[in-house]
User: Which sequence fits this backbone?
């Protein structure tokens, strides 16, 4: 169907109704050829066009139309040959609409290329094909070399840069882990200081003293903070560096290290609040 879509609009653009029939004195009419093409009778269309060429072999238009008929039949070499004749007879290419001609040449070029590739021919056997020459938008040999060199350079930089990036990330994770563990450990002393002061105040008060209940709640909060911090410290000790590295590569904000930092900040703020209400400074 695509072949006919290419062919029929071009017939109209060519002014096919004047296709040298006034000079041929043949009984063949434009409608005869159009009918054969539209009904898929390419062989009959070929026969009729050849009859016209017998009377007017120098008609670029007829050769061009014959080229298109060969194209619909899948005889791409013959189509290319007829197109070549048409262009030789009329170098100005007035036998076709420029846009339609360019589209047709591209389609024919693609079909020829596919045939050669399927036949397994070497590039050296294909030097005369339109795709073998540099056209607008194609890269010449120097551009191809530059492109390949750029790819090679990118590959080398990637091969060197990515391992270096992993090393930097590993060092960052390790240093962050060590720093967090040291900071968490140091806060145990602060918890004990506040806890000791509250305990002294707690035992010094009578049971019916309303302040004693408040002190008990603060001691419970300190025990909660101490327990959670011990859990964070244990999590950091058992952390798998490779797992965290993969997490950070995927999303640094959702890594285990990041979650520990967020939880630790919450516990620090809570400890400050308890210490402040108890009259202690860290």
Assistant:
């Amino acid at each position: 169907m695509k072949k006919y879509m290419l062919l029929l609009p071009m017939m109209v653009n060519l002014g096919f109704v004047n296709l040298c029939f006034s000079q041929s004195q043949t009984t063949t009419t434009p409608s005869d050829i159009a009918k054969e093409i539209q009904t898929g009778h390419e062989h009959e269309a070929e026969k009729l066009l050849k009859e016209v060429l017998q009377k007017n072999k120098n008609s670029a238009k007829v050769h061009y139309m014959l080229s298109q008929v060969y194209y619909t039949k899948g005889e791409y070499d013959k189509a290319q040959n007829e197109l070549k004749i048409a262009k030789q007879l009329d170098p100005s290419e007035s036998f076709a609409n420029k846009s339609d001609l360019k589209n047709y040449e591209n389609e024919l070029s693609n079909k020829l290329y596919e045939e050669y590739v399927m036949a397994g021919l070497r590039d050296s056997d294909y030097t005369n094909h339109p795709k073998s020459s540099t056209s607008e938008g194609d890269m010449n040999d120097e551009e191809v070399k530059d492109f390949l060199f750029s790819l090679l350079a990118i590959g080398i930089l990637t091969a060197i840069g990515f391992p270096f990036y992993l090393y930097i990330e590993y060092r960052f994770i390790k240093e962050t882990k060590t720093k967090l563990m040291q900071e968490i450990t140091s806060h145990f002393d602060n918890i004990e200081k506040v806890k000791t002061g509250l305990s002294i105040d707690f035992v010094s008060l009578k049971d019916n003293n309303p302040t004693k209940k408040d002190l008990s709640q603060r001691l419970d909060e300190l025990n909660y903070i101490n327990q959670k911090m011990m859990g964070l410290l244990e999590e950091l000790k058992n952390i798998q560096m490779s797992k965290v590295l993969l997490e950070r590569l995927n999303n640094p904000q959702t890594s285990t290290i990041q979650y520990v930092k967020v939880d630790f900040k919450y516990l620090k703020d809570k400890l400050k609040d308890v210490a402040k209400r108890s009259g202690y400074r860290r």
In short: The two ends are 85 Å apart (CA to CA).
